[in-house]
Specification:
- The protein is α/β, with parallel strands linked by helices.
- It folds into two domains: 5-89, no CATH class; 97-259, Metalloproteases ("zincins"), catalytic domain (Zincin-like), CATH 3.30.2010.10.
- Helix content is 36%, strand content 20%.
- It contains seven helices and ten strands.
- The protein has helices at residues 5-8, 61-67, 69-89, 141-171, 207-219, 228-237, 241-247, and strands at 28-32, 39-43, 47-53, 97-100, 105-113, 121-126, 131-136, 178-181, 188-190, 196-199.
- A four-stranded mixed sheet has the order 4-5-7-6, with helices on one face. A three-stranded mixed sheet has the order 1-3-2. It has a three-stranded mixed sheet with strand order 8-10-9, covered by helices on one side.
- A hairpin with a 4-residue loop joins strand 6 (121-126) and strand 7.
- Helix 4 crosses helix 5 (207-219) and helix 5 (207-219) packs across helix 7.
- The radius of gyration is 28 Å and the shape is elongated.
- 18% of the residues are buried.
- The chain binds zinc ion (ZN).
- Zinc ion (ZN) binds next to loops.
């Protein structure tokens, strides 16, 4: 039985028997106005709880625990087994959230192990709750990752393309086509044909930084180099470009590591 001393501190009307009776398993006492008789409850979250009615004589509790020892041991064993199973099923390497700083959005990812005919996995977007639900054979970590990556690419397509369009109109710097990529060392690029490609990992960066990258690529539609003229054009739309450009060198550190593996 794990020590639950620290957890029980937050409970009102609770006590721990650790000092008074080391032979019994650790437990907390919860006084419930609705309880009509003494009840034992065992859970991963709360450990062993003794729920007693108001005005119950707490001195009787150790004896009850003693009598119920077999029940406690049996159920504790079941609980441990179930917990071990969940731990082995849990996709440890997978993220449980995505912090898309550029959009000011934080998405939670929920994994549901379900039986499917061909071991397929699906991803469902719940925009209202900012939640992604991945269900199917979630023990297939690679497939789960691929699905999340796909979702990120699609989100980048929607969000970054419209962002680029808006900036293009504002700056009066037209481009031809756009593409989303996932390069390791490139945030964006612009070809001599004025085709701009953007890295979906930009979603994880601050909005101001993303805005700068988009402006940077739009300015390449005029100057295909990093000449003084190019930087002069950039500064017209982002006077603080030097500081932001420097910050891009460290920006890779906030990209989730699992995406690069
Ligand atoms: Zn450049």
């Amino acid at each position: 039985m794990p020590s639950i001393a620290s957890r029980s501190q937050s409970l009102t009307n609770s006590q721990i028997n650790l000092e008074s009776n080391p032979d019994l398993p650790a437990y907390t006492v919860r006084v419930s106005d609705r309880a009509k008789c003494v009840r034992l409850a065992l859970s991963v979250e709360n450990g062993l709880e003794v729920v007693v009615p108001a005005n119950y004589d707490h001195l009787k509790i150790p004896e009850i625990i003693h009598q119920k020892r077999n029940w406690i041991n049996r159920n504790q064993h079941k609980l441990n087994e179930r917990e071990a199973f969940f731990q082995s099923q849990a996709p440890h390497e997978l993220p449980d959230q995505l912090k898309l700083r550029s959009l000011g959005e934080e998405w939670q990812i929920v994994y549901q192990q379900t039986v499917t005919r061909f071991g397929s996995i699906t991803i469902k977007e719940n925009r209202d709750q900012r939640q992604l639900v991945i269900s199917g054979d979630i023990t297939n970590v690679a497939s789960c990752k691929a699905l999340i990556k796909q979702w990120l690419m699609k989100t980048a397509e929607k969000q970054l393309f419209s962002w680029l369009r808006r900036l293009s109109l504002q700056t009066n710097l037209p481009y031809r086509t756009t593409a989303i990529r996932g390069q390791k060392t490139l945030w964006g690029s612009c070809s001599s044909d004025r085709n701009i490609s953007l890295n979906y990992k930009l979603l994880f960066l601050e909005a101001q930084v993303v805005e700068y990258v988009l402006i940077h690529e739009l300015c390449h539609t005029v100057h295909m180099n990093h000449s003084a003229k190019f930087w002069k054009l950039v500064s017209k739309f982002e006077p603080n470009y030097k500081t932001i450009d420097k910050s891009l060198n460290q920006a890779w550190q906030i990209i989730p590591a699992w995406l690069s593996l």
